[in-house]
Amino acid sequence: MRRFLLAICLISSAVGFSQSNDDSLLTVNNKSISVGEFKQVYLKNLDLVQEKEQRSIDGYLDLFVNYKLKVAAAVEQGLDKKPSYLKDFAGYQEQLSRNYIYQDNVTSELVVEAFERGKEEIDVSHILVTCNWDAFPQDTLEAYNRAMHLRDLALKDPNSFNALAIQYSDEPEVKQRAGKLGYFTAFGMIYSFETEAFNTPVGEISNVVRTQFGYHVLQVHDRRAVLPKITVAHIMIGTRNDSTGAAKERIFEIEQLIEKGVAFEDLAKQYSDDKNTGQNGGVMRPFTKGELKAPAFEDAAFNLTAPGEISRPVQTRFGWHLIRLESLGKLPTFEEDKKRLEGLVRTGDRSKIVTSAVTAKMKEKLGCKSYPYMNEFLAVVNDSIFQRKWQFVPFEAEANKPLFSVGPKTFYFNDFGPYIESRQGKVRPYKQIGTMLKIVFEEFESLKVQEYFKANLELVNPEYAAIINEYRDGLLIFDVMEKNIWTKAKKDTLGIENYYQAHQNQYQWEKRVKGTIYRTLTQQDMDRVLDLLRQGVGSIEVKAQLNDVEKMGLMVTEGIFEKGDAALPPTYALQTGISPIYQLGPKQYVVVHVSEVINAGTKTLDEVSGQVFSDYQNQLESIWMDDLRAAYPVTINKKALRKLKRSLNK
Predict the structure, then answer these.
(1) 189 and 197 Cβ atoms separated by less than 8 Å
(2) CA-based, 20 to 30 A from 467: which of 206, 449, 567, 575?
(3) Do 168 and 135 have their domain in common?
(4) Would you say residue 141 has pLDDT above 80?
C-alpha cells in the first residue's frame, strides 16, 4: 500500500517544476513554508482535485495546511526517528537520486538508436551456454569455445538451429521452446543481446554474444515493422466460474443484439464483465501487438480494418470477447517519444554503459584527485584474500596516506582497507592480487564520489529537493494516519457499531423488487413473452421458446432491483405481478415480472460495513484535525498570498 501511494507521488511529481519563490507563505507549528513549495504542489495536483471549492487557492490552501499539520504531528510523535521510516526513506532516496545522478548521461546516440530499433520487431531463436560473470577463466574459455563450436555447426546447417538448441542449449524449458524467443523490439532483451540481434541479417547466424547468463548464438528468422497502436472497445463475458458454457452462449446472444441494431456501447455498459472498460462503453487503452499477452485477442483486433468494424466472438484465457475497432493510431515521432526513451535508457541496462563516464564527469566537476596506493596494498594483501580469510590491519598514522579526495573530503588508506575486506568473495575471483585491487579501488572510488554527489544533491537541484521532500512528508503522513486513524478505526468495533446506530438514516434502501426483467428487440417477441408469462411459464422455458441457434430474440436478467436501478424502465412503478410492455427505444422492449416487493428500510451493518468503516474513519480524522489545529499554530502571510493569487490570475 505504502509503495503504491508513493509510486503515485513519484509519477505525479514528474509533471514539471518551476523555480520556487523563497518568500514565506505560511508557518505551521513555527515552521516556515515557502510560496514556491505551495505553488509547485498546487499546480501539480490541481487536476486531481475533484471538488470545485477546493480548486481555488484558498480551498487548496486549507487542504495543504491539513497536510502540513499531519507532518507536524508525525514529527511530534517521533515517527521520523522510527527505523522502518528511516529505512524506507533511504531506499526511496537512493532510487530517486539515480535519476538525477545519471540524468546527464542519457546520450543522444543511445536514444536515437533505441528509437530506430523501435520501428522494427525481430523474431529470434538462441542457443545458450551458461557461464556466470564470476566464472574462473578456464571455465569461461571452455564455455566460449563450446559456443563457438555450436555456432560453427549452425553455420554449416542453419535449418538445424532449433534442433541444435534442443540438443545442446542450457536454456531452461528448451525442450518445449526449442530456443524460440519470438518477436521483440528495443528494450525487449538485455542490451548486448538486443544489439547482436539487430546487427544480424534475417536468416543469418550471429556472432557469439556475452550476457550475464553466459554465451549466446542467435538466429534471426524475421523482421517486421512495429504496428501503430490501435484503440478498440470490447465486451467480455468472463469464463472464470463458467463450467456450463453460459459465457459462450451469452456472447453469441449479444452478437445477435448488435446485428439487430442495439448500440455496442450500451451492451458493454450493461453486460461486459470487464467493469473498468464497460463503464466507458468498452473502450480500452491503445495497444500494439504483443502488449496484451493475449494473441487471439490481438490478432482479431488487428484484423479489423475500419473504425466501427466488429469482430466475431473471440475466446481468450479471460473469457469471450466481441471487439470493435475505434481508431487506428500512428507511430510517435522522435520528439514525441524522446522523453519515454530517455527514461528507459536512464533506468535500464544501457545506463551501465555510461556509468564510468558519469563517475569521470562527477570527479571532474567535484575536483577529485587520486594518489598512489598499489605498492602499499600489495605489501599487505596476500593470497588469503582468495579464500575470504584476509583481515585488514590498519596502517600506522604516518603510513595512513591519502587515497583520493572529493571536493573538501579526503579518503585514506584506512578507509579503503575495510572495503577490500568486505569485498572478499563478492568480486570476480581474479588470480592476480593487483588486478583485484584495481577493480575494487575503482568500485570504492566510484561509490564515494557518488555518495558525496548525492549527499549534496538536495542543496543544488531544486527539482530533486521538491520531490524528495514530498517523499519525506508522504512517508510520515502514511505512518501518522496508520497510527492515529486507520489502526484505531480497525480495532474500534464498538465505535463503528455506535457510529452506525447514530447514522442509520444515511444507510437506507429505497423500495426494491425481486423478479425478472425481459428484453426483446421487437413488439411481436415481447407480446409472445407476455402471453407466456400470463400462462405461468417460467423464465427458463420462456427463453427457450424465443431463442434458438439461428435467432436470439430475448435477454433475461434475474435479481433484486432497487428503485432507480438502471435495469428498470424509468417510469416503472414497483409492484408485484407482470408489468405492461415498456418501449425504451426503437428496438428495446421491456417487461418486468416481480415476485416480491421489498419495502424501503435500513441497511444492515453487514450490508454497508465498508461504507460505515470509511465514514467512521473520516469522522475520526475530522476530530483529529480539529485537535491538530488547536495544538499547532498556523499563520498565513496574507501579503504573500495576495501576490500569489495575482501571479496565477486567481
Answers:
(1) yes
(2) 449
(3) yes
(4) yes
